[in-house]
Structures are given as structure tokens and as C-alpha cells.
Amino acid sequence: MPRTPEQYEAMRLATRTKIQTAAMRLFVRQGYGSTNVQHIADQAGISTGLLYRHYKTKEQLFEELVQFAMAGMETLIDRFHTSGEPAEELARFANEVYLDLSTGDDLEHLLLLMTQSFFSTETNSRKSALKQLHTDLLQATSALIVRGQRQGKLREGNAYEMAQYFFSAIQGLATMKVILEEKFSMPSRSLLTLVFDQEGGSL
Description:
By secondary structure, the chain is mainly α. The chain contains nine helices and no strands. The model has no long low-confidence stretch (mean pLDDT 91).
């Protein structure tokens, strides 16, 4: 029985996801320059011919992954700007980070991929875009913290410094997970938000 268009589309998306996952892992763990199309195809368990049907070049694949990561940050910025529940929103996000770093490996690879893109790109426009995106994220987070402080639900202090510490901790955990692999131990959820939780919170 011939496959339906929906089945073909599902297969196409599944293959594309396998390619992206394999490429992210290889770009981060062995470096962009040391990764070629054959490596990615082997990691994904497909032929190079099938990979080329989805991506014409390694550069195109890398660019799509970076754009995907940047779009995720933009979504988070919008989410923080529009949230009316600062303490609850930060707790929800910390919980998502905890689950992602505890059970998967996409988050750490996406975070390190953006870092790799910043330091490896030769275009000032890409560097500027990444720098601006990180600045916007810190500003949105610090504004969220200020709203929580005004509600009396978050610790008093310099909100921008808290935001910077919070995301530095997440970036550091992502790096440590890639380096330590099976020896990595994810800290408790409450430790992620300890920097802006009110004093007296339990660990």
C-alpha cells in the first residue's frame, strides 16, 4: 500500500531531526571545522545522499541550527516581557531547564552551538546579532525580576546582576554536562533560582 503524503512528510521531518541532532552533537563535541558531511551522515545513520537531499552544505545546516537556537531565545524574551507572574514564570523556566539538562542533550548543544558560532564567525553582523540577543535576554529577565521584587515575591538586589548570574549558571551547567558526560550530576531545581528567590527558601 503506497504511503500517504502525510506519511512522507512525517518521514521527511524525522530524517531532518536526526540530521540536526547528529550535527549539533558533532559540531559541539569535535568542532565545526573537524566535522564533515560524512561524519554527520554516519552519526545520523543515513547515507550522505539522503543528507544532501535535506541540506546542500554543512554551512547551511550549521546556519539553520544557529537560527533555531536564536529563535528560541527570542521566544523566551517575548515570554518574559509578557508574563504577569514573575516568580512563577522564573520557576517554570528553571524547571524546564532542569528537565532538559537532566533528561536530554539538545539544550546544552544549542547553548554551546551559539557560543561556538559567536567565536568562530568572521562576520560582524552575526556577532552583533548574538550580542544583542543576549543583551535583550538579560534585560527582559532583569525587568521580570524587578516586577517580582515589587510584588514582594523575589529577593531584593541588582536585578541585572541576578539575571546575568542565572544565565551564566545555566551556560556553565551546559558546558559541564558536555565535558563530564555520564559523570555529570544535575543540581536540584531550587538551586537554579536561588539567586533571586527570597531568603529562607528550601533547597
